[in-house]
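A favour, since you know our structure tokens better than I do. What I am after is a single protein written out in full by you. Could you add the entry underneath, on a fresh line?


***
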Amino acid sequence: MSAVTLKMLAKHLSLSVATVSKALADSHEIRQSTKTLVIEGARELGYVGNPYASSLRKRASKTIAVVLPEVADSFFSEAINGIESVALQEGYHVLIYLTHEHLAREQAIMEEFKSGRVDGVLVSVSEETGSGEHIRRVLDSGTPVVFFDRVCDGPGTACVITDDFESSYRAVVHLAASGCRQPTFLATPTNLSISMNRLKGFEKALADLGLPRHKDEVLIFGKNEAENMDLLRAALSQPRPPDGMLVCVEKHVTYVYQLCAELRICIPDALKVIAFTNLKTAQFMSPPLTTVSQPAFEIGKTAAAALFRALKRASKTIDEEVIVIKSALVKRESTGSSPVSPG
């Protein structure tokens, strides 16, 4: 037997769908006698309301969305754990949406949120995202949005990030102190906020340290793995190859280790390597990898807390602020350091 719908209940009671809906929602617009009639009719027919639809009407789904470029990166996995730790305390569910680094997908996802599908949104933008107009429209619809890690220009809202510029600067200083005179920055597309800030920190450190500029100073990786490998192979095969490498994102450090093994380049003797990563296996790589370890759990937790502060306000307005949480340089053998030396 098919489920009884709101329309069927209204027809049975000779009332409008709107009246029945308001009566079930205990609206002040409906007389108590009508509410009693509707409740008794619902029991008689076995009508069961849709709690999700009801929550949408009340603008409270008890759900927040987290929009990510990917989940394979250990940073995002830890950030989700931080977000969920807060959401669970607040009695909220968390929905995960993946953009797979595509702006069009991100725009389509954000468009869904304008209808009130979720109460709030935490977003780390794709590498294709420049303008944040699609995110601005969600904010304008009354749904609060908080950026974490990756941000974009445009929307005025809360952002929770790490000290990418300073962390990159410290990493280059460590490479230089370890004997590097020709470091290379292995970047993602520089329209991405994290890549741009890390590149600026890299270049500022080179200038302050008086290190010579060179042809393969910055290598920008795209989405094509074969092309990325060819670009890196060409740089490492030069007569005077880089003697140090700062890797902007976790997934690219695998290329460096793989090609060094293929080309018989010894890490750290011929090439010293640092990567921005939260990989727990970094200490077990051969050699153990020096990392810029980002406080991913804390970033996720702080971003969620900012979102829930807004959700608890009647206006749902969110403070326009930038919260910066520091990363840590963990020195290991890939830069010639003794095992696990935070600095």
User: Anything to note?
Assistant: Residues 184 and 245 are 5 Å apart (CA to CA).
